[in-house]
């Protein structure tokens, strides 16, 4: 793997980790966060799905609505 690919992969991993932190923080503030929901977020590794979950957060009535894209 080239240095450029490693850097790109590292950057993506950092972005995913940050999105997980943001989603956990906001869900905990809005709904309260149980361990199953936290684990589901921490296991997520798809940036687009995490982005979608964050987008749903503002209008969601339940935590399940937000986490559905992570299934």
Automatic annotation (TrEMBL):
Protein name from the UniProt record: DUF4351 domain-containing protein
Organism: marine sediment metagenome
């Amino acid at each position: 793997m080239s240095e450029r690919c490693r850097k790109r992969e590292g950057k993506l991993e950092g972005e995913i980790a940050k999105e997980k932190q943001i989603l956990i923080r906001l869900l905990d503030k809005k709904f309260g966060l149980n361990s199953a929901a936290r684990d589901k977020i921490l296991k997520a590794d798809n940036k687009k799905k995490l982005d979608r979950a964050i987008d749903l957060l503002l209008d969601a009535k339940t935590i399940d609505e937000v986490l559905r894209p992570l299934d």
